[in-house]
Structure formats: C-alpha cells, structure tokens
Amino acid sequence: MVYDPQNKTITTNRLVLRLFQKSDAAAVTRLCNNYNIYKHTLYLPYPYSMEDALSWIKRHLDHFKSDKLYEFAITNKETGELYGAIALSNNQNFNNGEIAYWIGEEFWGHGYATEAAQAILQFAFIEKQYHKVFARYFSSNPASGKVLEKIGMKQEGILIDHVRKENRYINLVYYGIINSMR
Fold this sequence. Notes:
The chain contains 6 helices and 9 strands. By secondary structure, the protein is an alpha+beta fold. 31% of the residues are buried.
C-alpha cells in the first residue's frame, strides 16, 4: 500500500483508491442501480439515480478535508475502470473508524474488496494512527464477513434485529481489529 497525500490516492498491487470525480457518476449509477447491492447495504437507495450519485460524490472532498470521512473509488490500476467504493469514517473522540464498501456485482469474486479493505486498514493504522477499525454487515451477506476475516478482523458480536430493510428486521454482525503497530 502506497499512500500519496498530495493526490489523495492509495495504490495497491492491482488497484488505485482515489477520490470520486463528477465524471464517475454514470458508472456509479450503473453499478449501484442493482438490487443485489442494495439488499446488502444500509444506506444505498434503490432504484439508484444519476442525481443520487452526483449528490453523494459532491460531498466527498469536504468530508476528506475535514477529516470526517475518507471515501475512495476502487479502480483498476491499469485501466482506471471503476469497481466500487470504500470508505473509512473518522471518530476522533474515540480514535477509531468504520470501514464500509461495495463492489459492482460484475466484479464480485476477484478479491477487489479484500485488497481495498486491506489498503484502507493500513491507511487507518499507519497514516491516521487509529487505535481501532470496525465494520458491520448484514448477516444475510456472509461474503462481506469473509472479506473482514481475510484482513484480520475478528467478530465482536451480533446485534439481533438491529436494522429494518424492506419491512424485515436484519441482524448486524460487528467485526473489529486493534492497531498492533502503535
């Protein structure tokens, strides 16, 4: 993982994590307007419109500059193709943050979420000096749990019927990891 603070990018073997641009809105709309992504995410609307993408992207730079939330496009290092998104919140009071991500369905199963999550974890621990990073996922999405396990996170608990989606209550599984590099 190489972080470039000037350009606000993180580079891995296969990926570049970078800030979203307005020009990404069409690709974001195409990838997010997918029921299979919607059903596994807490806040993505469905159907997903171009306006949703533009209003979401518009806030990213301010969030980044204010150290509230770091939102990155997950892109192919060689071609620049957009695969998905990964974000890291910054809770300065507790020196921790939450990882959240989505990958376009056509790119599932290639390890992009794991590679991006590993990079964002290193960014949190090395660059931002977090004490802890956590993540949560719907119990109906075990693939997300596998990503978190691959980057060294451990399950910390399950909040039963914690959120409501499509008139059903869903369990949220919490994972976390403490910074051992400090």
